[in-house]
Design brief:
There is one protein chain. The chain is built from 19 helices and eight strands. The protein is of the alpha/beta class. The protein folds into four domains: 76 residues, GMP Synthetase, Chain A, domain 3; 147 residues, Rossmann fold (3-Layer(aba) Sandwich); 72 residues, Helicase, Ruva Protein, domain 3 (Orthogonal Bundle); 90 residues, Chromosomal Replication Initiator Protein Dnaa, Chain: A (Orthogonal Bundle), CATH 1.10.1750.10. The strands form two sheets. Strands 5-6-7-4-8 form a five-stranded parallel sheet. It has a three-stranded mixed sheet with strand order 1-2-3, covered by helices on one side. Helix 8 packs across helix 9. The longest helix has 23 residues. The protein is globular. 34% of the residues are buried. About 5% of the residues have low confidence.
């Protein structure tokens, strides 16, 4: 009986991609073989549902070939009944009622699972690395650093790790948070004299940490020191951690050497923009999940026109389906063209004032300082960067940009040329400009 199951697994391994086999088929165990029914056990409800829906027919076909007669597959849960319910997305730590309550971060999005992630040439390594870490493969890596522009799927992969671990073990504490939330929580701990509880929460009460947008820690020296110490504790205890950022640790401005070293200690993987074929598959996947049917020409049109990121693709899909439903018209090319035109116009809404606002926030100076006649270095650099970005992201003539910054046409040209030259030689400046650019493109201004 066990020999039969071993042969089935061997053939399944040859028919499936290695990550799919390791994640879904390998954990199955043989329970019994009775009257042409092969009874298997899965580690949890989620695993059983996934295998039944996606691999059930394949396993039955292979089992029938191996047994030489018709064979049916039945899958049961090995670790006790779950009553058909999904596992909770987050768990509250039992802490005293007095004072501010610490929490384990944000809730995981229900659709951000490995099942819903579309794998392509732009992200296959990152997907495999995340899946390996989630499944506890013994490759010596407990840390993963995901790098990409906003909207490329790094949040999806990070949360997929959290979902997978929660389905495998109810005992593990998974914390999902952003670097900004981590910093704010630490500040509150200092303000309310609850630093020991803060340290206890992260160093002893957390088994898996999903920390997003690490570049936010730029210049926050006190938070960097505390996070570096927390990561030392994680490493000593073999705990898992996933970071995400839009740049490498070494390229994050004003990041101390100790934290940079800790962040660089794990596996680093970049996620690139999806190509046309992957964008088509993403749209098809998301449409199927939402129960929508889009004509092939509409999907191909959206995939060809919306190339910036996955979020933009999703906006296009939501736009055409919502407009079709509200207006009571079919989804066709005319409808898709109107939605795409609106999305592209929105992306072009970056203004000089919005750029000023974001640059001032990044450099911690006021608008009055940026447009003043002061030649202090702390004001000159943000002014030059803002002028450069205004030229890059708006259609405003140089004269208009100059008037906005209280400068002459020649000064504007000099600022643009200077920033372009210094970005080639100064990696820190280049990363600062790229960080601001990414926030502009994401509408975060």
């Amino acid at each position: 009986m066990q020999e039969l199951w071993n042969k089935v697994k061997t053939k399944a391994k040859q028919s499936l991609p290695p990550p799919s086999y390791r994640m879904w088929i390998d954990p199955l165990a043989l329970k019994s073989w009775t009257n042409g029914t092969l009874v298997l056990t899965a580690p949890n409800f989620f695993s059983r549902k996934r295998v039944t829906e996606h691999y059930g027919q394949l396993l039955e076909r292979i089992a029938s070939e191996v047994a030489g007669s018709s064979c049916r597959i039945q899958i049961e849960i090995d670790s006790g009944p779950v009553n058909g319910e999904a596992l909770p997305l987050a768990r509250q730590l039992p802490l005293p009622e007095a004072g501010p309550r610490f929490h384990n971060g944000r809730l995981l999005r229900r659709d951000f699972t490995f099942d819903q992630f579309v794998v392509g040439g732009n992200n296959d390594f990152a997907y495999s690395a995340a899946l390996s870490l989630a499944a506890g493969r013994r490759n010596g890596q407990n840390a993963l650093f995901l790098i990409s522009r906003p909207g490329m799927g790094k949040s999806h992969l990070a949360q997929a790790v959290g979902h997978h671990i929660l389905t495998q073990s109810r005992a593990e504490q998974v914390f999902y948070t952003t670097a900004e939330d981590f910093a704010n929580e630490m500040i509150r701990a200092f303000q309310t004299d609850r630093v020991p509880q803060f340290k206890e929460k992260y160093r002893n009460g957390c088994d898996v940490l999903l920390l997003e947008d690490v570049h936010y820690l730029s210049g926050k020296e006190r938070t960097q020191i505390e996070l570096a110490q927390t990561l030392d504790s994680f490493q000593e205890n073999g705990k898992k951690i996933i970071f995400s950022s839009c740049c490498l640790p070494s390229e994050i401005p004003r990041l101390n050497d100790k934290l940079c070293s800790r962040l660089s200690n794990g596996l680093i993987s970049k996620i690139d923009p999806p190509n046309f074929r992957t964008r088509v598959r993403i749209l098809q996947k998301k449409a199927a999940v939402r129960g929508h049917q889009l004509p092939e020409d509409v999907i191909h049109f959206l995939a060809s026109e919306l190339q910036d990121d996955v979020r933009q693709l999703e906006s296009g899909l939501v736009g055409v389906t919502a407009k079709s439903s509200l207006l009571g018209v079919p989804i066709d090319m005319s409808l898709a063209e109107s939605v795409v035109a609106t999305i592209i116009r929105t992306r072009k809404s970056i203004t000089i004032e919005g750029i000023k606002q974001l640059v001032c926030r990044q450099y911690r100076v006021s608008k009055a300082d940026v447009v003043s006649r002061s030649r202090k270095k702390c004001f000159v650099r943000p002014r030059q960067v803002a002028i450069y970005l205004a030229r890059r992201y708006t259609d405003a003539p140089l004269e208009t940009i100059g008037r906005s910054f209280n400068r002459y046409h020649a000064t504007v040209m000099h600022s643009i040329k200077l920033v372009e030259q210094e970005m080639k030689a100064d990696a820190a400046l280049r990363r600062q400009v790229e960080l601001i650019s990414e926030r502009l493109e994401a509408g975060d201004f």
